[in-house]
Design a protein that fits this description.
Helices cover about 20% and strands about 35% of the residues. It is of the alpha+beta class and about 375 residues long. The protein folds into 4 domains: about 35 residues; about 100 residues, Beta Barrel (Thrombin, subunit H); about 90 residues, Beta Barrel (Thrombin, subunit H), CATH 2.40.10; about 110 residues, Pdz3 Domain. It is elongated. The N terminus is likely disordered.
Length: about 375
């Protein structure tokens, strides 16, 4: 009888101990979240502002950049960037630095440093700079900002409606913060140079202006989820997703350039209007139509057929690509994203093609995109 009472009496005590442990564990979790998740925009700004820099470069009139107009002698272009690591690397846009070999980097406290352009990817509109420390001493007090690199987040986790924050130098107004939401994800937006698109671009309504290019786009945890690079008047602005930055920037640091995969064709999403002009296609067919291709390219070697125009000016549709390596393709963006994320020059690729009422498979080897001269 007494032993039963003892066992029963121990239950409340055990419950108190367990609940106490849970209580303190929740305090620790909440404290950790408070450290890692800024509770307000001004707290986020104070935490990251020192790692955002202003970039000034001299560009030729034949290579207009973000905050400069063509014509006349060399002009000053303004842009933004951010600290990537503790080795003095700064990430910005390729179009901000244009063809410059070195640029000026100004930190939040007004100190100005020279930085060499050590890597550029014009197609992806990314560039990496390396701070040139006076007398080789990167430990001097004025360079302490390089020891606060920004954390790269996962852009693939973003959803439409998520809050985002941009910090940059619009029109030279240093460390300006604006905020907005993710308006859409997965856009394919043409890079400032060349005729190719950057995949998986983030669209935001956060205000961006000339001088913002190259600056970071943050999530509400203070992680960089994009690098801003342009927009359209009316609140339609774009950022290169951090998942692409994570892939390309280390290669720019080690090699100085980045080679994009290349197939050598031009495609268009198979819309209802395009499908009707193509002829007798199944009503639910989804894919991209091959409009043109480059002779000798990977697509040409695979014997993919592009659209043609007969002697009477009538256009005849080309192949419809419905899948690549077994992955269904419904939009041009799907094809571009898959190639950039998963393929490198020299790797095999298999297309599922709809042609003349039949599905066929064609194989080829991914090529290298021609360099911009």
């Amino acid at each position: 009888m007494n032993s039963n009472n003892k066992r029963l009496g121990s239950v409340p005590l055990l419950s108190i101990i367990v609940l106490t442990c849970i209580f303190f564990q929740q305090i620790d979790i909440a404290h950790g979240n408070a450290l890692n998740h800024p509770s307000s925009l001004n707290e986020l700004f104070k935490r990251v502002e020192g790692s955002v820099v202003q970039i000034t470069s001299k560009v030729s009139p034949t290579s207009p950049t973000d905050n400069q107009q063509p014509g006349g002698a060399n002009q000053t272009a303004l842009g933004s960037g951010f600290v990537y690591d503790r080795l003095g690397h700064i990430v910005t846009n390729s179009h901000v630095v244009a063809n410059a070999k070195s640029v000026d980097v100004t930190s939040i406290d007004g100190n100005r440093f020279t930085a060499n352009v050590i890597g550029r990817d014009p197609y992806g509109d990314l560039a990496v700079l390396k701070i040139v420390s006076p007398n080789g001493n990167i430990n001097q007090k004025s360079l302490q900002f390089v020891y606060d690199p920004l954390e790269l987040g996962n852009s693939s986790e973003l959803e439409v409606g998520d809050q985002v924050i941009a910090i940059g130098n619009p029109y030279g107004l240093d460390n300006t913060m604006t905020s907005g939401i993710v308006s859409q994800v997965g856009r394919a937006v043409q890079a400032p140079v060349g005729a190719y698109s950057i995949p998986d671009v983030l669209q935001t309504d956060a205000a961006l202006n000339p001088g913002n290019s190259g600056g970071p786009l943050f999530n509400n945890r203070g992680q960089v989820v994009g690098v801003t690079f342009g927009g359209i008047p009316g609140g339609i602005n774009f950022a290169i997703p951090s998942d692409i930055v994570k892939h390309i920037v280390p290669i720019l640091i080690s090699k100085g350039n980045y080679t994009h995969p290349y197939l050598g064709f031009k495609v268009a999403t198979l819309t209802s209007d395009l499908a009707s002009s193509e002829g007798n296609l199944p009503p639910n067919l989804r894919g991209v139509s091959v409009d043109s291709l480059v002779r000798g390219s990977s697509a040409d070697k695979a014997e993919i057929k592009a659209s043609t125009t007969d002697q009477y000016g009538k256009k005849h549709g080309g192949d419809i690509i419905t899948a690549i390596d077994g992955k269904n393709i419904t939009r041009t963006e799907d094809l571009i994203s898959y190639l950039e994320k998963t393929k490198s020059p020299g790797e095999p690729v298999t297309f599922t093609i709809y042609r003349n009422g039949h599905f066929i498979k064609l194989e080829t080897t991914v090529g290298s995109r021609p360099a911009i001269t």
